[in-house]
Amino acid sequence: DALAEDRITTEHCQALALENDTARQVQVFEAACQSGWGGKPEVQTIRRLVTESEVAVAGNSKFRFVGADAFSPDELRTDLFSDDGDGYVDRVALDAALLEKLQAVAEHLREAEGWEWCAGRMEPVGECREDAGTYRCLPEPEAVLTEAEDERLNELMTRYDALENQCEESDLLEAEMKLMRCMAKVRAWTPEIRAGSGVVVSWRYGNVCVQRGVQLRSEDDAADDADRTEQVQEKAPVEEISLPLLTKMSSERTLAVQAALMQQPDKSLALLAWTLCLNVFGSG
């Protein structure tokens, strides 16, 4: 009826079509009318109310990495007018699917590269108090290419630089170069280190972050680090200075500055002019 009476448009209908429940559609429409100017609902308001706990999948790096196959049809919210790649997904469900895939990648790297343990998590291992008490990140060893790898890498770079535009061939060349560098980095970790360390796979700035050479701290290590931190933070005792002595020292310093300026009249004049300008025009 509202559409026939031109009180809403097809865009309003498209936004309402994101919700399958008719009762929920009425609830959202009434709420949008109450917040709209003159009782007229805004399309963006309707869409926001329907998807307030969801995120758009279009252009979403998390969804692109996880893939649509990670969700059931009921978990992906689309309407009849949506283009391919459009829609919404529950924010919590997306993060859960992302964490599951990060863990799967970590498991693959552990088996393929020979690490003792692995972990998938939403954020990289950092220097915060909790991570610092649990993990120790070893410095990354320098990656060294073999002579054959170095020659192959130079050949790939020459072919890549000869291409004028980005194309399928350039993507393949870039992928092979990244793979060679990655293999060299992994090879730099000795089998002994890998046997006693882990790999952590997380999400950072819209991309997968891989941290190799992460060790689990023991309780003794954490206690020793805490003691060292407290020792560094302890300040050396400062001798107390009485107020009369402090006042006398300040006065003597002022007199010394005045005497020095009297012996240099040109600098005194410049300092006076600067002070006057500062008072008139301000410090900005």
Tell me what the structure shows:
Keywords: Coiled coil. This is Chromosome partitioning protein ParB. It comes from Shigella sonnei. By secondary structure, this protein is of the alpha+beta class. Among the domains are: 10-94, no CATH class; 147-184. The protein contains 12 helices and 7 strands. The chain has helices spanning 10-16, 22-35, 43-50, 61-66, 91-113, 129-132, 147-162, 168-188, 191-195, 219-233, 243-262, 265-281, and strands at residues 54-56, 76-77, 88-90, 117-120, 135-137, 198-204, 207-216. Helix 2 packs across helix 3 (43-50) and helix 7 (147-162) packs antiparallel against helix 8. The radius of gyration is 32 Å and the shape is elongated. The protein starts with 9 loop residues before the first helix and ends with a helix. Mean pLDDT is 80; it is low at 231-239 and 280-284.
Distinctive features:
single chain, 284 residues, alpha+beta, 4-stranded mixed beta sheet, 3-stranded antiparallel beta sheet, 12 helices, 11% strand, elongated, disordered C terminus, coiled coil, Chromosome partitioning protein ParB
